[in-house]
Give the backbone structure.
Amino acid sequence: MITASIKSSAVRLNKLVGTSVAFESVLETVQMVSPRNCCVVINGETGTGKEMIARQIHALSSRAHQVFIPVDCTALCGHIFESQLFGHTKGAFTGAISETLGFFRAADRGTIFLDEIGEIELDLQAKLLRVLQESSVTPVGSTVGHPVDVRVICATNRDLKQMVREGTFRADLYFRLNVFKIELPPLRERKEDISFLANHFLKKQACLYDEPSKQLSPEALKILQKYHWPGNVRELANTMEYAYIASRTETIDASSLPVDVLAGDLLAPDSPESFLDFEEMQKQMLIRALHKTKGRKMAAAKLLKLDHRKLSRLVDEFGLEATWK
């Protein structure tokens, strides 16, 4: 089990939530690497909480009282990337009406978080590598370097090693950054956390709206646990916000869940354990149609191009009648 000190730090600092063995392992790794000053690469699918883990590392480090600066590498390219990261002098290019520090100098003595590091263009990777090697930044339009003391944490949902093999990511930059790697498991691999996380997000909604707390029905929880969660924890948070608003009672039943979650991941080609048999697929399509038509069976039958009497029999067979009453 994870130690109490790690749990209390997680809740107090960034509200990292989870009780699964996989998640406890991540938190133990975070506590181990945080006091060191090495570069860290956080790898994980979209929505797994890479920035939250980066903030946790910063919060548990000796730099905790200094700045944490997140940078979205997908939004930067060309000279904009250079000037945003390294700063520029007045008149360095059209529109440069004043001198700027850039993210690296602004993060001096703190932490810079380079999100989606795999999206940086090759020629800019070389300039980033020089900064990391020399611990010095030269603004665009200047020949004078400025020393910086910055811890670098990166995140990506791509396979950087494969990108190196393909020639789209510099090997020298990869080895400079990849001192310590943290793999974040997708939510489908830590299903023990779904109930815990769902209730956590529902409590947050209750506090936000200053309303009574709400609970998931067993049927609704079962649907959440079977869903593939391509958007991971972020998608679950959005789902719980939707369900909280859509539910008119303090118990959230299946009809209050979003249609995509109700229908399930019907194909899930990369996840054999999530494949639905024919009967379950029928049930999910019925749920989706009834949800769309607000329980009107005639309209649902028309939508599915199905005889309404057959639809009524299936509704009874699957026990779906009460859901929309």
The chain has a mean pLDDT of 85.
